[in-house]
Specification:
The structure is a homodimer of 329-residue chains. Chain A is α/β, with parallel strands linked by helices. Chain A has a single domain, classed as Ribokinase (UDP-N-acetylmuramoyl-L-alanine:D-glutamate ligase). The first copy, chain A, has twelve helices and 14 strands. In chain A, the strands form two sheets. In chain A, strands 6-5-1-9-10-11-12-13-14 form a nine-stranded mixed beta sheet, sandwiched between helices. In chain A, strands 3-8-7-2-4 form a five-stranded mixed beta sheet. In chain A, α3 crosses α10 and α10 runs antiparallel to α11. At the A-B interface, β2, β4 and α4 of A face β2, β4 and α4 of B.
Chain lengths: 329, 329
């Protein structure tokens, strides 16, 4: 690839997570579906929050988590996402910049507050997410700085960007800038219900605009409305690289005729799976932009995912660069 | 004691903690003294925060932590403290109410933001705290609801209340209401430098207004400006009960002629000592208001302290009531 200022530029919904312990009975009482992300409005957010246990606040957002991970690994990373200029927006900006991420998207001055994701963590370490998009609905094409995108080896976008109204225009603008500059575009399918909401457009994106796709089994199966093996066959013709995560089974990477199967990293205790997919993408994209082979990329992804599920929250606690240095690759 | 609506009413600085990993080199670069609490203004808070690693936000405040612990143990608890009506203030209020705590102090509508404590956690699990008091400076005697204090077996106050200007008047008002109603007044000495700042008044409080005092070795030694053994002899004549924590040595409780020495609970890994003293007081006061003997109170304190130092943050993650039920008392 050409010289680059950034390894990866990420574009996503800028969200602060509110994490609290929960149980199946509470999920049932609140009418929530375990393991998925549901969009809620401000009134629903207040109503659910009022019933949640005491929590902790932690910067989140799917691609933002990945970008924090890439920076933590030693990669050069940039982020585009919309917060409001409020306390949680300041927290979100601080946490990315403190990780060394270039993050200059202007904060919204009025309108909705910084987005929040209410994350209910059950004893089985599953996370059930209710997202109030707040200021994310203000993200639009004007927030895309062409010089940042053109200077990044990979531009990484989340499927969740299809939920706020103007973000998809930002997405398409960024993808065009990236490709015009000879760069790669990566996409996370985000969530099976996100795929349900936007299937037709996601299929078109994969066919025409996306070079690298990240998905888990239910997302890729939902996209092609078929079983896992058939979905894998179909995605092979659509993207240069498809990295499919399979929870405790590790991941499968498909690229042209190559198939790489990578087992999961051992984890002593799974505490909270929030961010597992995001950190897998972080490790994978870091490896890819460092010129590593696909098997190493998959292993780096698994190593970062293993770190994040060992504690509460979706931003790494450990020094990921040291973690990688300790592991033989 | 007479019938009571609440076991313990707490009055303290209502603070949201911002916790981040740090190291000795950063403490030195920032000119911070390890292990103590320093008061900072808004500009200092911004400057230190800008240099801190990515963090998590978690409700804190010394007595608020204790009150959350008492409620988590199954006790009936109330809290008085001043937040602003902003996002972090809403987080603070939510986290106490979600724990079942009665908390009705009016939020400040304008003026300074909700108080923040920047907590730098070093690899030795020590915490170094920089507190911006923010809206806490608005707490005054009008915030004391006599009906709540008179209906609480114990009113528990923190030495830190001597830092904001009007809070000491609230403190004295509450102590008088409590004693007039035949209730007990408990005080935490909070921090050795807090004792330095307010020694003369603290000595007067202990002699005339406080029935139960919580301190660690350096606080009680600082109060009497002498060694630990001499300090223990002096406090005996000043309070009905003095509960002195000694880190890994456990605690010593002095009451009249009785001295109870309690070893520390075993802890598999000490992660973050933030809140250890607060949770000791929670367990102790819970035991006391349930009519348990001093040895049991000390053990309950040690059990709760052991829970809090096993993870990041000063609010319990485990179900304390279940933890106690599993332990033989």
């Amino acid at each position: 690839m050409a010289d680059s200022t950034f390894d990866v530029a990420g574009i996503g919904n800028a969200i602060v997570d509110v994490l609290a312990h929960s149980d199946d009975a509470q999920l049932a009482a609140l009418g929530l579906s375990k393991g998925v992300m549901t969009l809620i409005d401000a009134a629903q957010a207040d109503a659910i929050y009022a019933k949640m246990a005491p929590g902790i606040e932690c910067s989140g957002g799917s691609v933002a988590n990945s970008i924090a991970g890439i920076a933590g690994l030693g990669g050069k990373a940039a982020y585009v996402g919309k917060v409001k200029d409020d306390q949680l927006g300041q927290v979100f900006r601080h946490d990315l910049r403190a990780q060394g991420v270039h993050f200059d998207t202007k904060a919204a001055i009025d309108g909705a507050s910084t987005a929040r994701c209410l994350v209910l963590v059950t004893p089985d370490a599953q996370r059930t997410m209710q997202t109030y998009l707040g200021a994310c609905i203000e993200l639009g094409p004007d927030d895309i700085d062409p010089s940042v995108i053109a200077a990044s080896q990979v531009t990484y976008l989340e499927g969740y960007l299809w939920d706020p109204p103007q973000a998809k225009a930002a997405f398409r603008k960024a993808a065009k800038i990236a490709h015009d500059a000879g760069r790669k575009v990566a996409l996370s399918l985000s969530d099976p219900f996100c795929v349900e909401r936007h299937r037709a457009e996601f299929l078109e994106l994969l066919a025409d605009h996306v070079d690298i796709v990240f998905a888990n089994e239910s997302e890729i199966s939902s996209l092609y409305q078929t079983d896992f093996d058939s979905a894998v066959r179909q995605v092979r013709g659509h993207c240069d690289i498809a990295a499919i995560t399979r929870s405790e089974l590790g991941s499968v990477v498909i690229s042209g005729d190559a198939v790489v199967v990578q087992g999961a990293e051992p984890v002593s205790a799974v505490i909270d799976t929030t961010g597992a997919g995001d950190l897998y993408a972080a490790g994978f994209l870091y490896g890819l932009t460092q010129g590593r082979d696909l098997g190493t990329c998959a292993r780096l992804g698994g190593l970062c995912a293993a770190e994040i599920i060992g504690h509460v929250g979706a931003r790494p606690e450990a020094n990921l660069a040291e973690l990688v240095a300790k592991t033989s690759f």
